[in-house]
Design goal:
Helices cover 35% and strands 22% of the residues. It is of the alpha/beta class. Helix 8 crosses helix 13, helix 17 packs across helix 18 and helix 18 packs parallel to helix 19.
Length: 696
């Protein structure tokens, strides 16, 4: 029994060729509608079909009919009808129908139908995407015929199809050049600091000239950038890429030791920054002045050349311009960008992201959010943050979306003003930053916003509810890591019917509490956290991901790379599960579990219970954090870090017991701190919390 994720008329014809010589019987669910071509084909006299309905009363009769056909050597092909879906959706068939078909117990062949044109970047030609890929998974037989296994193999088949996309072999500089050329006069970057803007065609000319200066300044393969979001930050990153070098956006909020480690690991000897930023960040361990490329000093000297290249870049076609500039067409697995992990649970690790990784993630994320040419993105996340890098640097340029920048995600009042003034469509934030909007933004300021997407830390349910009640916008939680370039999952609004007569089933895209569906080309696997033995997707365990967006490895650390990448699968370190509709739930980071009396206790669940008990959810800043410490009797114990003075551990214990929290899950003691340690991204600083417990 072939169960595809979708099937149009032309794809059905390809399937008939694939199974030539076998008798085909189509399975048609009575409640579904079909497009006219497909319907006409299914009604031909020489076409055999079985109609069914997902009714328990006919399940046994359907099962007998299916097994009789299988015994006769027939190939049964389920034909999905029309559904209401969003672009780039993996699942397009209602789960109840898939469950009914799988319940027949016949051998199942999952088929992922890949349509590259639906997830294409704007710079891809019709020739590159005008084809269909039929990706067959391994057949499921006997006890392996389950919904969880079907989903797992379907995702893997989709990943295998997506990973063959020609665009993934492209060089990032070539893709950026084509994007800047294509969207040169229609899109721009707006600096929210001073409301100045720079059109993409002028940005291209300036980046070309600055890239030549960078080539003269250093022979090192990497160049550091120490700038906040803005025109200068985007220009610097583009220029480094065009110079054939790797940008390293340094975390200027990190400690001196961490910064020194990043500089030493990356081997940079030039740092692009700006005079005002140097003065503002006086505590940053700045290198000698001779190693600094001060962007506002360099550009005025190159003004005449920028004018010349503005003319040339308009006259020359992209291919010839790339040849003149020495920009290669092929990048594939070569290093394109170096980012460093936040160091939330240890020293920073250099994450090598390839051209393939970044172009895949721009395409994957871009097709899912489906912004139009007149939409605008608010770019305020730091450029050293993986989300800030991919989604607010490379995505707007390649896809042609105007970017409005601001140097800090903390100034919610100013960000709300920008959202209102420029009619922002997409806001990216963390739960910590969303609390700022609740304090300082007015509902009318976010009126034009289509999507509010959050990640980096778990979204508290009360915060999501309060935000929706205040602004009338759902908060859409996503998931990703620096190592996944970064997006792997995202919730999105459900598609809406076209009027009251639209009877197509709605395939859900949003489920509160989850981090959404995997984006196109990402496969998921669940294993036992202790033994790495495979578990069904619907069971809780260690999450592994596979896809073209998975990083190439840690810089100079092959042992740590081998710890997390095995046979193409990336071990995320997060515990979670997938539900029957394909939504992924993150239950906690393995490092944020404590093993107490043989039981795995999730810190985030305990924090959520305490926040609800004490009324800390919603508008306030983070007030508490749980830290695990060694305990001789029970293995570990929980300590509560509190930025709310006056909490009594005995009172808290009784209140949590009244809520039904197990005794083992209740903190042993409370340590008061001035504030809960957070990283610049808004994530909890786990290392900082552990140091606070030790009194360091």
């Amino acid at each position: 029994m072939v169960i595809p994720n979708r099937l149009r008329f032309e794809e059905l014809l390809h399937l008939e060729q694939r199974f030539a010589g076998r008798r085909l019987i189509y399975l048609i669910e009575r409640s579904l509608d079909y497009d006219p071509l497909l319907q006409a084909h299914l009604e031909k006299e020489d076409v055999q079909a079985i109609e069914f309905s997902c009714d328990d009363g006919v399940r046994e009769a359907f099962k007998r009919q299916i097994h009789h056909s299988i015994d006769d050597g027939d190939v049964l092909i389920f034909v999905p009808g029309e559904s209401l879906i969003r672009p780039g959706q993996n699942h397009t068939v209602p789960t109840r129908i898939v469950q009914f078909l799988i319940g027949a117990g016949a051998p199942v062949l999952p088929l992922h139908v890949e349509r590259p044109s639906e997830t294409a970047l704007s710079i891809e030609s019709v020739r590159e995407t005008d084809h269909i890929v039929l990706s067959f998974a391994k057949v499921l037989e006997r006890e392996a015929v389950t919904l969880a296994n079907y989903h797992e193999r379907m995702l893997l088949a989709g990943e295998e199809a997506y990973s063959r996309r020609p665009i993934l072999k492209t060089h990032l500089a070539w893709a950026l050049l084509r994007g800047l050329k294509r969207h040169g006069v229609t899109d721009r970057i707006i600096d929210g600091n001073d409301d100045t803007d720079l059109r993409f065609d002028k940005l291209l000319a300036a980046a070309i000239v600055l890239s030549k200066h960078i080539r003269q300044e250093t022979s090192q393969p990497r160049v550091a950038i120490i700038l906040p979001p803005g025109k200068a930050g985007m220009l610097a990153n583009l220029a480094v890429i065009f110079a054939g070098k790797v940008p390293v956006n340094l975390n200027f909020t990190a400690g001196e030791k961490a910064i020194a480690s990043c500089i030493a690991q990356s081997g940079v000897d030039r740092f692009i920054t700006a005079d005002p930023f140097v003065r503002k960040m006086s505590r940053f361990p700045w290198p000698p002045t001779k190693q600094l490329i001060l962007i506002e000093r360099v550009l005025p000297k190159l003004k005449a050349r920028i004018g010349l290249w503005l003319v040339l870049s308009k006259l020359l076609p992209a291919g010839l311009l790339a040849s003149v500039l020495g920009i290669p067409r092929r990048g594939d697995h070569e290093e394109a960008v170096l980012l460093f992990t936040s160091g939330s649970s240890g020293d920073p690790k250099g994450v090598v992201l390839s051209h393939r990784n970044l172009l895949a993630n721009v395409s994957q994320f871009g097709c899912r959010i489906d912004l139009k040419s007149d939409d605008k993105v608010l770019g305020c996340l730091p450029l050293f943050h993986s989300f800030g890098c991919t989604v607010t640097l490379w995505y707007p340029i390649i896809e042609g979306v105007t970017l409005v920048t601001y140097p800090s995600p903390l100034d919610a009042g100013k960000l709300a003003e920008l959202a209102e003034r420029y009619r922002i469509s997409l806001i990216l934030a963390t739960p910590t930053f969303l609390r700022g909007y609740l304090k300082k933004a007015k509902p009318e300021q976010l009126e034009a916003v289509k999507l509010v997407i959050t990640g980096a830390e778990k979204l508290p349910a009360n915060l999501a509810q309060t935000f929706r009640e205040r602004f009338g916008k759902p908060v859409l939680e996503g998931y990703g890591l620096t190592e996944t370039s970064p997006v792997s999952n995202v919730n999105l609004p459900d598609p809406e019917p076209n009027g009251p007569d639209d009877r197509r089933p709605v395939i859900p895209n949003h489920r509160q509490g989850s981090v959404g569906h995997p984006i196109p080309g990402v496969a998921v696997r669940i294993t036992d956290p202790n033994t790495d033995e495979p578990l069904p997707l619907h069971h809780s365990g260690m999450i592994w991901l596979r896809g073209a967006n998975i990083f190439e490895g840690y810089l100079g650390q092959p042992e740590k790379t081998a710890d997390v990448i095995r046979h193409g699968w990336f071990r995320t370190g997060d515990i979670g599960r997938m539900d029957e509709d394909g939504f992924l739930y993150i239950e906690g980071r393995l490092s944020r579990f404590s093993k107490i009396g043989g039981e795995m206790v999730p810190h985030e669940t305990v924090e959520a219970a305490i926040n609800e008990t004490l009324g800390f959810d919603g508008e306030g800043e983070r007030k508490i954090a749980i830290v695990g410490v060694p305990d001789e009797q029970k293995g570990e114990a929980l300590i509560l870090l509190s930025a709310a003075p006056g909490l009594d551990v005995t009172d808290l214990r009784y209140r949590l017991l009244d809520r039904g929290l197990p005794s083992l899950w209740i903190p042993r003691s409370i340590i008061e701190v001035p504030e809960i340690p957070l990283l610049a991204s808004g994530k909890l600083d786990i290392k900082g919390c552990e140091m606070a417990v030790k009194g360091e």
